[in-house]
Each structure stands twice: as structure tokens, then as C-alpha cells.
Automatic annotation (TrEMBL):
Entry EC number(s): 2.3.1.48
Name of the molecule in the record: Histone acetyltransferase
Primary localization: nucleus
Source taxonomy: Eukaryota, Viridiplantae, Streptophyta, Embryophyta, Tracheophyta
PANTHER family from the UniProt entry: HISTONE ACETYLTRANSFERASE, HISTONE ACETYLTRANSFERASE KAT7
Length: 450
């Protein structure tokens, strides 16, 4: 905020001040003074001091009375217009520069807002990539309804294991948990409580040291557990509640019976601690091999997201199917997948001698042909000649694209994957039930004969 020196009151409620070049500039405050405009109305635009101690433009989304405060004592829920909704938060009045309230949007204001934007490095730290369906499936009315319903985060923080995590978005927890400043999660069964004391009592009784379900992968300190939503309904629902805190336009499925959850964990002598997960439908007519994916904030930028994507394709290979993520993808989701597809496809093209078809690439990678085509077209590595697609794989061009795609992250050691596809599991369970049924009938006949 500028110095008050050189400020000159005017009868029209505006103010004049000297700018850096010695010229007079005018800031319009509207009809009434800033103090008489309190409490601020929803929709008010103003500058706000953020955690970097710089002023950023915000829009007031909601307001609430300060307990035991005066008539005009409010806190304000604001959206930082430069950044993602995940940074929306409650702020106190003293964080707001009321002199900037209701300014005319002109070049000077735009220049000021631009000068206060974060550096590219700061933005990258905030914009951790995670994959989620985007906004495309919502029409304008549905999108407005969604944003109205979810505009204010109902849970500010969670404690999960040894981490306290700031949440990003609204999640539809049962109403009794709304406006709880902090929720405490059991990191093994994902039960959640309002108070630390409740969690401590719970941990003495909880006998889980890993997610429920089958451990299907173990390599070093990493484990993957397959959790059947039908067999572990409460865990599946709690995982969805937890994930929604960090995913914006993502449908929360209460009917978790239809899904399998693949939960990635870091393991030590205390147990297996959740890092992230992906889910997939048990039966997908569209060949989706992934419905939702999340790496929890403390574990991001460590290659786990790429690992989860790669793991979903290794399962598709085991099933003997091609796979693709559920559509639509967000921009960040498409970026993550395009990076994976680029690395996998170009590594094959570098090593392969002779011609190779799109179908052969799909068979080798379990990547859907449409995804292969769109990736190679985006890289300008494919041409359409005489009624067919031809891959143009110049080694220097491949190297340049591979370098741009970045590192591949943690690799899945397929030799450590011990897994039976769900269809085969169903058939085995059916055979087991039939054997039990025959045994029961045989036992009943034997009893009758006696």
C-alpha cells in the first residue's frame, strides 16, 4: 500500500496521490468511505495480503460474523483471482486494503495486479499436478450450481499420520462435520474424528496397519493394495471423502460397490502409510482403466503420480486389454497422461528396428489407439499417406521430445506384481461358492440318510 504523503481529499469521495513519475493519479472509492462500507458485500473486489506478505486481488465469496465481535466485525472468505480455487481461504479484515475496494478496472490496476503475481517457480510449487475429470461434463447451469454449493471449504485442515495438511476444496462430509477447523484421520482405516483425543482412543482399538484388501505389489518400501469397494464399503467411502478435499470438479461416488481402489503406501515398521490411490470401475464398457487418481499433497513431486498411471496400464496388460483414463480429462490430467504416453511410445520407437504399426504399439503398451494417434499427432510424428498413418521417427527428433517430456518417475517392477484380474476373481469366487453349495447339499443328504 502506498504512502499517505501527498494524498489530497476531494469532495467527490476520490483521492489524488503522486505516482512514481510525479504525475497525479486518481483512485475512486465509490460514494461512501471505506469504513462506512463495512461489512463488505459478497462480490466485493479488493486487494488482500497473502501468506507471501504481498497484496493480491481477491473477490469476496462469503462472510461470517466474528464470535463476540461488534456489529461490523466479520471474516471474509476470498478467492484469489490470479490463482486456483484451492487457495481460497478465510481472512481477517486487517488483511484487506480497503483503499482498493471497488476500484475502476483500468490499466493501472491491471499493471498493479500483474506486478503482484507469483513467480513461475512459486506457481509451480502450488500447482501440483493431479488428474481429475474437468469441467466439460457440466453445462453452464450445472457448473454454477456446483460452484455455489462448493464455494466455501467446509474443512480447513486434516491430520493424517504425521502430516497436517491444508485442504484445497469442499468435500460433502456428513453435516455434523461441517465447519470443523480440523479433522483427524486414522491413516490405516481412514475413520475421521473431530478431536485429537478421539483419534488417540481410536488408534488403541484399531487393529489395521495397512489398507483393508489384498497386497498385490511390494517393492522395497512401496506397497500397493487392492480394495474392493463392495467388501470394504466404509473404507471406500472415507477414501472418497478424503480425496474430494483435494479434487475440485470430481463426482463423489457414494456407491463404491462398483469400484476397485488401488492404494499406494510407503511402508515402515509402524505400518503402511497411504501416499495416493487410483480407482477403476470393475466393469467398464468404455475400456476405462482409471476413474480417479490422487497423490496426497505431502507426497507430490516425488514421481508417485506417474507411478500410479504406469501401474494402471500394467494391470491392463495383465487383463489382456487396452485401457484409457475416464473422460473428460482436465488440462493438467491431459498433460500428465500425454507425458506418460510420450515417454512410453518414444522409448519403443527409439529401440525398434523397422516399421511398426499403431496397432502393434497398442498391443505392446495397452494404450488405446486413439491415445497413441493423438499423442503422435501432437508431436508431429505421424503423417497420413495413401490411406494409412505413417510414423516418422527421426532419432534426433525423438531425443528432443523425450527430453521435453521429462523423467518417467518411479518404475513399476512387474515381477513384483501378484494379481488376478477381477473377472477371473469373480469366476473363482463363483466356483468356490458352487463347491460350498455342493458340499452343503451333500452333507444335508448324508444327514437325511442317517
Amino acid at each position: 500500500m502506498g504512502s499517505m504523503e501527498g494524498l489530497k481529499a476531494e469532495s467527490n469521495g476520490g483521492a489524488q496521490a503522486m505516482n512514481g513519475g510525479g504525475e497525479m493519479t486518481t483512485t475512486r472509492r465509490g460514494r461512501s468511505s471505506a469504513s462506512s462500507a463495512l461489512p463488505l458485500e459478497v462480490g466485493t473486489k479488493v486487494m488482500c495480503r497473502w501468506r507471501d506478505q504481498k497484496m493480491h486481488p481477491v473477490k469476496v465469496i462469503e462472510r461470517r460474523k466474528v464470535p463476540h465481535g461488534g456489529a461490523s466485525d466479520y471474516e471474509y472468505y476470498v478467492h484469489y483471482t490470479e490463482f486456483n480455487r484451492r487457495l481460497d481461504e478465510w481472512v481477517k479484515l486487517e488483511q484487506l486494503d480497503l483503499d482498493t475496494m471497488e476500484n475502476d478496472v483500468d490499466e493501472k490496476v491491471d499493471d498493479k495486479a500483474t506486478s503482484l503475481k507469483m513467480t513461475r517457480h512459486q506457481k509451480r510449487k502450488i500447482d501440483e499436478t493431479h488428474v481429475e475429470p474437468g469441467h466439460e461434463e457440466l453445462d453452464a447451469a450445472s457448473l454454477r450450481e456446483h460452484e455455489e454449493f462448493t464455494k466455501v471449504k467446509n474443512i480447513a485442515k486434516i491430520e493424517l499420520g504425521r502430516y497436517e495438511i491444508d485442504t484445497w476444496y469442499f468435500s460433502p462430509f456428513p453435516s455434523e462435520y461441517n465447519d470443523t477447523p480440523k479433522l483427524f484421520f486414522c491413516e490405516f482405516c481412514l475413520s475421521f474424528m473431530k478431536r485429537k483425543e478421539q483419534l488417540q482412543r481410536h488408534m488403541k482399538k484399531c487393529d489395521l496397519k495397512h489398507p483393508p484388501g489384498d497386497e498385490i505389489y511390494r517393492s522395497g518400501t512401496l506397497s500397493m493394495f487392492e480394495v474392493d469397494g463392495k467388501k470394504n464399503k466404509v473404507y471406500g467411502q472415507n477414501l472418497c471423502y478424503l480425496a474430494k478435499l483435494f479434487l475440485d470438479h470430481k463426482t463423489l461416488y457414494y456407491d463404491v460397490d462398483l469400484f476397485l481402489f488401488y492404494v499406494l503406501c510407503e511402508c515402515d515398521d509402524r505400518g503402511c502409510h497411504i501416499v495416493g490411490y487410483f480407482s477403476k470401475e470393475k466393469h467398464s464398457e468404455e475400456s476405462y482403466n482409471l476413474a480417479c487418481i490422487l497423490t496426497l499433497p505431502p507426497y507430490q513431486r516425488k514421481g508417485y503420480g506417474k507411478f500410479l498411471i504406469s501401474f494402471s496400464y500394467e494391470l491392463s496388460k495383465k487383463e489382456g486389454k487396452v485401457g484409457t483414463p475416464e473422460r473428460p480429462l482436465s488440462d493438467l490430467g491431459l498433460l500428465s497422461y500425454r507425458g506418460y504416453w510420450t515417454r512410453v511410445l518414444l522409448e519403443i520407437l527409439k529401440k525398434h528396428k523397422g516399421n511398426i504399426s499403431i496397432k502393434e504399439l497398442s498391443d505392446m503398451t495397452a494404450i488405446k489407439t486413439d491415445d497413441i494417434l493423438s499423442t503422435l499427432q501432437a508431436l508431429d510424428l505421424i503423417q497420413y499417406r495413401k490411406g494409412q498413418h505413417v510414423i516418422c521417427a527421426d532419432p534426433k527428433v525423438l531425443d528432443r521430445h523425450l527430453k521435453a517430456a521429462g523423467r518417467g518417475g518411479l518404475e513399476v517392477d512387474v515381477s513384483k506384481l501378484i494379481w488376478t484380474p477381477y473377472k477371473d476373481q469373480e469366476e473363482e469366487e463363483l466356483r468356490r461358492d458352487q463347491r460350498k453349495s455342493r458340499a452343503c447339499r451333500s452333507s444335508a443328504r448324508h444327514s437325511q440318510q442317517q
